[in-house]
Design goal:
By secondary structure, the chain is α+β, with helices and mostly antiparallel strands. Helix content is about 15%, strand content about 15%. It is built from 2 helices and 3 strands, in the order E-E-H-H-E.
């Protein structure tokens, strides 16, 4: 991640927030989450851990349980980073 870390983008603004104001996940209300994309296209060897985790034999049972067999990427994966004050994050479709 240090290789591509300069490409983190901070997502701020009400339309990009994932939590409601004045809730336990709201954070300081100013700091936005930071995300990073494009890891699958980085030069080797930096991309390899991200590619390998998508079909790692020890992870497959967990991926099947969470996502169902035949899962696919419907968009590029993102790495989400949070710093002090950043809002909490709830996964799509999660409890």
């Amino acid at each position: 991640v240090a290789q591509g870390g300069a490409d983190f983008r901070e997502r701020t603004g009400a339309a990009l927030r994932n939590s409601a104001p004045d809730t336990p996940l709201a954070g300081d209300g100013v700091s936005g989450r930071r995300d990073l994309a494009g890891m699958l296209g980085w030069e080797a060897p930096y991309r390899e851990p991200f590619r390998q985790v998508l079909a790692h034999p020890r992870l497959l049972p967990y991926l099947h349980e969470l996502l169902g067999r035949g899962y696919r990427l419907d968009h590029l994966p993102l790495l989400i980073a949070q710093t002090k004050g950043t809002e909490g994050f709830r996964l799509h479709g999660g409890p």
